[in-house]
UniProtKB/TrEMBL annotation, chains A, B:
Domain Transcription regulator PadR C-terminal: 91-169
Listed name of the protein: PadR family transcriptional regulator
Organism lineage string: Bacteria, Bacillati, Actinomycetota, Actinomycetes, Streptosporangiales
InterPro entries, per the entry: Tscrpt_reg_PadR_C, Tscrpt_reg_PadR_N, WH-like_DNA-bd_sf, WH_DNA-bd_sf
Any single Pfam family the record assigns to this protein: Vir_act_alpha_C
UniProt domain Transcription regulator PadR N-terminal: residue ranges: 10-78
Natural source organism: Actinomadura harenae
DNA sequence: CAGCTCATGTAATACGTTACATGATTAC
DNA sequence: GTAATCATGTAACGTATTACATGAGCTG
């Protein structure tokens, strides 16, 4: 049920927005935090409306609907933030592959890890670029968004170091085998 | 489609097993990597059989079915490992909450972060315990499993340090406000 | 023989992805 | 006037969670 709360939270921070606006916000600021597709978002907005957590504040051109969080919605968000224990979902495709890399040749395994390093460096660069692009005008989004961004950096750096370490371990093992 | 490959990979490493055995293996060794529920696993085993990637090698007491990976299954696993680009899903409920912590009082927000630290310490302790429990007899599972475990440790440690840093940032901000 | 563990399955529901579909408005 | 952008929606399918259901075999 977290898409629901991500939507509510963003709507509060943005002080009202359309589905289209929200979608962009998900792409830009929430890339490292929570993904959402267009279909999913529009569906959720309708459900949130039915449940009374948001309402259509005004309608604009091209069928645009500007949503706003209701009192009930603020309550729900607060309840979720403080009372619902976070559910940690652990599913990492890269780690999963690593687990089974013993089933291919050592050089193929090392190649896989090196590809991940390249991909990671690209993402780190993208993150740096994003950091410069973002308009940190909202006080809350700015403070907490910056914390999340720092997390992203630390996470990728940790991952990079671990990859290097893995390559070292692999090299060592293969050297011993000779 | 990764449950499929997690199942194939584990079946290869275990050199054949029942759904029940696999389920335990998922719980014990794959906790930090890939979660699976009982329903999901049994369903996937039947689909894998239909698709010819695994087969029932023998049947035991209580309707037990011992599965084994077929040639086609080995090929599929190899293909997935080396040719299918890993899909990174970024959804982190804790980070998501952090993003919106500006919407509750500062002390409530700090309380939330502190709770996460406690939960993390518990998981780190569990991981250490798990490390001692595991029977690292299979050469591949031992080598790659150890790499994955090291990842788990580094990940949690990074996270812990970041939480500390977050608490520091929060304290600083609140001090400035006075 | 009672209770535990082993062992598999299904049904309902929720959540997520991909693709398709449509049309209004704006900018050039 | 045509291309790009804004804007929303639905349908089909795949994946995941929860709960229910059932029974065989082992242990004391």
């Amino acid at each position: 049920m977290s898409l629901r709360h991500a939507t509510l939270g963003l709507l509060v921070e943005m002080d009202g927005a359309s589905g289209y606006d929200l979608l962009k916000m998900f792409e830009i600021t929430m890339g490292n935090v929570w993904q959402a597709t267009q279909s999913q978002l529009y569906g959720e907005l309708n459900k949130l409306t039915t449940d009374g957590f948001i309402e259509v504040a005004s309608e604009g051109p091209r069928g645009r609907k500007e949503y706003r969080v209701t009192e009930a919605g603020h309550g729900e968000l607060r309840r979720w933030l403080l009372e619902v224990p976070p559910k940690v979902v652990r599913r990492d495709e890269i780690l999963l592959r690593l687990f089974f890399l013993g089933q291919v040749e050592p050089d193929e395994a090392a190649g896989f890890v090196r590809e991940q390093v390249v991909a990671l460096d690209k993402r780190l660069a993208d993150l740096g670029e994003l950091e410069n692009t973002i308009n940190w005008d909202d006080a809350n989004l700015s403070f907490y968004g910056r914390l999340a961004m720092e997390y992203g950096k630390r996470f990728m750096t940790m991952r990079r170091e671990w990859y290097e370490w893995v390559l070292g371990e692999m090299a060592e093992r293969d050297a011993v085998k000779e």
